[in-house]
Amino acid sequence: MTQRRRTGPLCRPLAESRRSASHSRTSPNRAILSMPIRRALISVFDKTGVVDFARELRERFDVELLSTGGTAKLLTEAGLTVTLVETVTGFAEMLDGRVKTLSPFVHGAILADRDNPDHLRQLQAANITPIDMVVVNLYDFDAAIAQPACTLADAIEMIDIGGPCMLRAAAKNHKHVVVVPSAAATRDVLVSMRETGDVPEDLRRRLAADAYFLTAGYDGRVSAYLDRAAGETGAAMRATTQMARRGGLRYGENPHQAAAIFESVGAKGAKATPAARVDADEVECSYNNYVDCDAALRLCVDLDEGGARLVDGSAPDAPIAACVFIKHTNACGVGVATGDNADSREAAYRRAYLGDPNAAMGGILAVNFEVGAAFAETMMTTLSRFQGDAAACEAPPQAFFVEALVAPRITPEAMDVIRGRGPEETRKAWGRRVRLIEVGPFARWRSGDLLETRRALD
Predict the structure, then answer these.
(1) Of 380, 391, 329, the residue nearest 354 (C-alpha)
(2) Helix 117-125 vs helix 104-111: angle between axes, to the nearest 10 degrees?
(3) What is the DSSP secondary-structure string of 388-414?
(4) For residue 191, which phi and psi values (nearest 5 degrees)?
(5) Beta pairing, strands 363-367 & 402-407
(6) Strand partners, 66
């Protein structure tokens, strides 16, 4: 392949580039950066918001734009001046786009330590000008393999190579290079630049951590896909799981422990996490509440999967209603009934409650069906409705409430009943503070993970 002569502004001698950038920063109405961002490489698969981001970099902060392929075309069509990567590397894209940015003229420009005089001498000797910002997001491998018609060959073509390389390089050198691995990150960067004219070290470091988190998860999902493909011939299977923090908790199992809730990244299905809560006015769930909600949900899912075989072997595929009371992670009442109607739901609830009415009080209730107004009325009138049945207990119950209700869905009408906006007999003080948690369909269930410190005494 014939090498092209490298021309254009990216190949100015380093000292000249620094002088010109410094001069441009002193012009009126320009943001002055303590670590000036003079040159940004932008190459994104998801182009949401990229034009506006690039325009502000160029027009407000006088940043030179370097780009590839479709991103360069989009920015150029939007009226922005863009330098193509191939004019910097001296090579056109090759191998059907598999090789675009894999060049010392890109990676050397990203990885050079600006505090190392030897690195700077090597850049100048090779006529390489530094890159100060890398804006990259990756091929959507997950969306590709989710398509029913996706073949192994199709999936392989959607494995990003250059993108992760640039993200990792920029993240490694985040002291000197701002890495922007997502659309959310573009907002954070612009907010910082507008406010301070800079991207401070703590934000650079956080974005670097985000980049490594994203590339690690990406590689894990590619590995899992290829493992599944190889599994057809008997190869070993592995799993990679990534967790992201979804919220903090007041404390852990004990007051001296700090705690937070984490959720599997990219997982789908039922979940009992803060995002699933349906009423912001209720009392916040504690660590122990989440532990019990998780236990209740797990058992309820097992019952749902077991189906009518648990009740009527003659109709194993019939739907069932399932109710579970949990306290301190132990089941204190379980009920199932064949059918998917109001009668079967009340029957399952009655059986679960009468398993141990005193233990059910103050526990967690999980059900496998949508909670409507009728079931909400049943729950809110539990004591009066089933008092006669519970009278046979050695110590008949004198009160009833639950800490949380976990269900696939809780209708607005049911919430009105529970919160005291329904019939007079359903209005209970505990209904105003009970935690209501929607977990979504049971078809693909998952839970979050709770993390707590062993000791937090300071």
Answers:
(1) 391
(2) 160
(3) HHHTTSSS------EEEEEES-B-HHH
(4) -60, -45
(5) parallel
(6) 41, 83
The band of 263, judged by pLDDT with boundaries at 50, 70 and 90, is: confident
- The encoded tokens of residue 316 equal 């194993």
> Residue 266: what pLDDT?
58
Residue for token digits 């090597």? 122
Nearest to 287 by CA among 264, 324, 265, 255: 255
Tell me what the mean pLDDT of segment 245-266 comes to: 78
All domains of the chain in start order, with CATH:
9-231 (3.40.50.1380), 247-452 (3.40.140.20)
Rounded Cα–Cα distance for residues 347 and 337 (Å): 6
Q: Please tell me the distance from the alpha carbon of residue 353 to that of residue 385, in angstroms, as a whole number.
A: 11
For 335, the 3-state DSSP assignment is strand
Look up residue 132 and give its two tokens: 């100060």
| Maximum Cα interatomic distance, the chain, rounded to a whole number of Å | 94
What does the radius of gyration of the chain's CA atoms come to, in whole angstroms?
Answer: 29
**Percentage of residues of the chain with pLDDT beyond 70:** 78
Mean pLDDT value across the chain: 78
Burial status of residue 342 (CB atoms within 10 A of its CB: 0-12, 13-18, 19 or more): middle
pLDDT value at 374 more than 70: yes
- Tell me, letter by letter, the H, E, C secondary structure of 231-291: HCCCCCCCCCCCEEEEEEECCCCCCCCCEEEEEECCCCCCCCCHHHECCCCCCCCCHHHHH
Rounded to whole angstroms, how far apart are CA atoms 222 and 227?
8
CA distance 431 to 156: 53
List, by residue number, the catalytic residues.
172, 328
The angle formed by the CA atoms of residues 12, 13 and 18, to the nearest 5 degrees, is 90
At 422, is the pLDDT very low, low, confident or very high (cuts 50, 70, 90)?
Answer: confident
Global pTM value: 0.59
CB 440 within 8 A of CB 391: no
Three-state DSSP state, 112: coil
Residue 363's H or E segment, with its range, is: strand 363-367
User: Which residue in this structure is represented by tokens 């420009």?
Assistant: 109
Alpha helices in 175-258 (DSSP H): 183-196, 201-231
> Is the pLDDT score of 121 beyond 60?
yes
pLDDT at 239: 63
Phi and psi at 132, nearest 5°, equal: -105, -15
Please tell me the distance from the alpha carbon of residue 196 to that of residue 123, in angstroms, as a whole number: 29
In this structure, what are the phi and psi dihedrals at residue 346, rounded to the nearest 5 degrees? -65, -35
**Token reading at 190:** 């612009």
